[in-house]
Specification:
A motif ('KMSKS' region) lies at residues 195-199. Homodimer. It catalyses: tRNA(Trp) + L-tryptophan + ATP = L-tryptophyl-tRNA(Trp) + AMP + diphosphate + H(+). By secondary structure, this protein is mostly helical. The chain has 13 helices and five strands. It has helices at 17-30, 42-45, 52-69, 86-95, 100-104, 107-116, 123-138, 151-168, 213-221, 239-252, 256-262, 268-294, 297-326; strands at residues 3-8, 35-40, 76-80, 143-145, 176-178. The mean pLDDT is 96. The structure holds adenosine-5'-tetraphosphate (AQP). Adenosine-5'-tetraphosphate binds next to helix 1.
Length: 332
């Protein structure tokens, strides 16, 4: 079985619709066909300030949401990044292979550090993509299911895997990004020119899966469309409507052309009302299942402990081989 690896940050509490459609939904599907490793990336979370208590609670909450979304611990390996120390250990080696300018060209770093200001952005934020490289290479992943915003980081992973392999010998599988066209980028409901995101979206443009379903329905109904009335998939001229059609299509399995036909001559109101209902039907059981996992933290923690054990077995082997190839003296 080919291997997949991916991660999600435990920063915002609730996952948003972009996280789910862009990434987590694919994770659930891929556990059936791949040897799948999925993690809550708490080491990544501290690249921006975190309250320790909240971080701990959000880490459990992220795991609960992943299980609620359909990850099955018997079908995949689900763990918390900090439970596997090899991530940080391999990241150091990768940091030492990465050019300063190369890391500086990562657009997510440029955007986030510009927003925070040079003095407040941390070295951790700068080197975040390199930690991500280590995350992926440790598991010899063939594919990495992510949203479009992560493509550049997967390219960096490929470059560094090839660099290491070229310099020290074949150690790493060179992975590919697994990005589905339909859900590569889910856009903000109020500003469809930007991606839906926890840091850039306004509350009205961001659908958090754990919000009150009523509030979610309201956001869908007040999504920005355009002054026209025609329902047509046209991301350039009709980005708002096209975003709604994409969301509707993946959540229901109906094709976009089918939806265009269904709503021909009906106007935006009908589309939004129906999509609001689809959203409510999706988030209501999701919230309930998440709460059930949270109500039983012992079971949740034991799932994560077993996941960490399975992950460590793979990660430790890669790290030991890598350290040896670099020339570190083995500890006797
Ligand atoms: N709008 C999106 N469309 C498609 N995929 C998306 N992802 C995030 N936003 C969208 C994908 O979700 C996965 C988990 O991402 P993360 O844990 O790195 O979260 P993030 O990227 O920090 O989420 P945000 O909201 O985008 O955070 P900020 O605002 O801090 O940048 C990834 O696979 C990502 O591609």
């Amino acid at each position: 079985r080919p291997r997949v690896l991916s991660g999600i940050q435990p920063t915002a509490g609730s996952f948003h619709l972009g996280n789910y459609l862009g990434a987590v939904r694919q994770w659930v599907a891929l556990q059936e066909t791949h040897d799948a490793f999925y993690m809550v990336v708490d080491l990544h979370a501290i690249t921006v300030p975190q309250d320790p208590k909240e971080l701990r609670a959000n880490t459990r909450l992220a795991a609960a949401q992943l299980l609620a979304a359909g990850l099955d611990p018997d079908r995949c390996t689900l763990f918390v990044q900090s439970h596997v120390p090899e991530h940080a250990q391999l990241a150091w080696v990768m940091n030492c292979l990465t050019g300063f300018g190369e890391a500086g060209r990562m657009t997510q770093f440029k955007d986030k550090s510009a927003k925070q200001g040079a003095d407040r952005a941390t070295v951790g934020l700068f080197t975040y993509p390199v930690l991500q490289v280590a995350d992926i290479l440790l598991y010899q992943a063939n594919e990495v299911p992510v949203g479009e915003d992560q493509r550049q980081h997967i390219e960096l992973t490929r470059d560094l895997a090839e660099r290491f392999n070229g310099r020290f010998g074949e150690a790493f599988t060179v992975p590919s990004a697994y990005i589905l066209k339909e859900t590569a980028k889910i856009f903000d409901l109020q500003d469809p020119s930007i991606k839906m995101s926890k840091s850039a979206s306004t509350p009205k443009g961001l659908i958090n899966l754990l919000d009150e379903p009523k509030a979610t329905a309201k956001k869908v109904k007040s999504a920005v469309t355009d002054t026209d009335t025609v329902i047509r998939f046209d991301p350039v001229d009709k980005p708002g409507v096209s975003n709604l059609l994409s969301i509707y299509s993946v959540l229901t399995g109906a094709g976009v052309a089918e939806l265009e036909e269904k709503y021909a001559g009906k106007g935006y109101g009908a589309l939004k009302t129906d999509l609001a209902e689809v959203m409510v039907e999706f988030v209501t059981p999701f919230r309930e299942r998440t709460q059930q996992y949270l109500d039983d933290p012992e079971t949740l923690d034991s799932i994560l402990a077993k996941g960490a054990e399975k992950a460590r077995a793979v990660a430790a082997e890669t790290l030991a081989r890598t350290y040896d190839m670099v020339g570190f003296l083995p500890a006797k």
